[in-house]
Design goal:
This protein is α/β, with parallel strands linked by helices. The chain has 6 helices and 12 strands. The chain is elongated, with a radius of gyration of 19 Å.
Length: about 230
C-alpha cells in the first residue's frame, strides 16, 4: 500500500518488462502511479530480450523465469506455466493430441528462434519428455501467434498469462495439461532494495501489492479442459 503523499515524489523511474506482460499488467500500474504522483516521470521499456539493469540504467525490471544474475535482488509476485493451446475449430478438425509425441502429427505454431528445428519439453527436470518438430508457422511476436491460433492454424505454446483471456472466452482451449511443466516465477528485480530511492520503492511496493492478486499469475489452470 502506498502511503507517500502526492507532493513528495518527483523525478524519473525507468522500468523494463516483457512486451505482452508489460502491456497487460505493468502499463496499468504505470498509469495509476502517474495519476497519484503528478511530478513523476516514467520510462517503460517493453522488450522480450534481456535488458541489463546496470548497462541500460534501469531502476527495476520484471523477469519471467529464473534469474541470470544472482547479485540482483528479486521479489516473486506470481507464477505462470507454459501451455499448449488451439482453437475449438482446429481441435474439431484435427482432434486432441493425447501425448506430446502426437504433436508431430499436428500443425504447430512456434516463436521464432535461430534454428528451424524446434524442441518442446514436457514434465519436470527429473522426468522430462522432449518433442522435436518443424513448425508450420514461425513468428517472433506473441499477438501474431495468438491470431494464428484463434484462426485455427494450429497448436501454439505460450505462457498462461498470455492466453488467460482466450481460455476464459473459449476462443482457445488448453491441451495436454497432464504434461504441463512446472510453473516459473514472475519476479520484480532491482540492484538494491534497501537503498532504493523513494520514487522507485513506491512503484516497487505498488507492483508487489497488486500483481499477486491478478488472475492468471498464480500458476493454476483457468478452466476445465478436455
Amino acid at each position: 500500500m502506498l502511503t507517500t503523499t502526492r507532493n513528495t515524489l518527483s523525478g524519473k523511474v525507468r522500468l523494463t518488462a516483457p512486451v505482452q506482460f508489460g502491456r497487460l499488467h505493468i502499463a496499468p500500474l504505470v498509469l495509476t502511479f502517474l495519476e497519484r504522483f503528478p511530478d513523476i516521470e516514467i520510462e517503460l521499456l517493453l522488450s522480450d530480450s534481456y535488458q541489463d539493469l546496470i548497462e541500460q540504467g534501469l531502476d527495476m525490471a520484471v523477469r519471467i523465469g529464473q534469474l541470470r544474475d544472482s547479485s540482483l535482488v528479486a521479489s516473486e509476485v506470481g507464477q505462470v506455466y507454459r501451455t499448449l493451446v488451439a482453437s475449438p475449430a482446429y481441435l474439431k478438425r484435427h482432434g486432441y493430441p493425447q501425448s506430446p509425441a502426437m504433436l508431430t502429427q499436428h500443425h504447430l505454431i512456434a516463436g521464432s528462434t535461430p534454428s528451424v528445428q524446434r524442441e518442446w519439453r514436457f514434465g519436470s527436470d527429473v522426468q522430462q519428455e522432449r518433442v522435436r518438430f518443424t513448425p508450420r508457422l514461425s513468428v517472433n511476436e506473441v499477438e501474431t501467434q495468438l491470431i494464428a491460433a484463434r484462426a485455427g492454424q494450429g497448436i501454439t505454446r505460450l505462457l498462461s498469462y498470455q492466453v488467460c483471456d482466450d481460455l476464459q472466452r473459449g476462443t482457445l482451449c488448453e491441451v495436454l495439461t497432464d504434461y504441463r511443466p512446472p510453473p516459473v516465477p514472475i519476479q520484480l528485480v532491482a540492484q538494491n532494495v534497501k537503498y532504493m530511492p523513494a520514487k522507485v520503492r513506491s512503484f516497487w511496493d505498488l507492483a508487489r501489492a497488486t500483481l499477486p492478486q491478478l488472475d492468471g499469475l498464480r500458476g493454476q489452470s483457468l478452466r476445465p479442459v478436455k
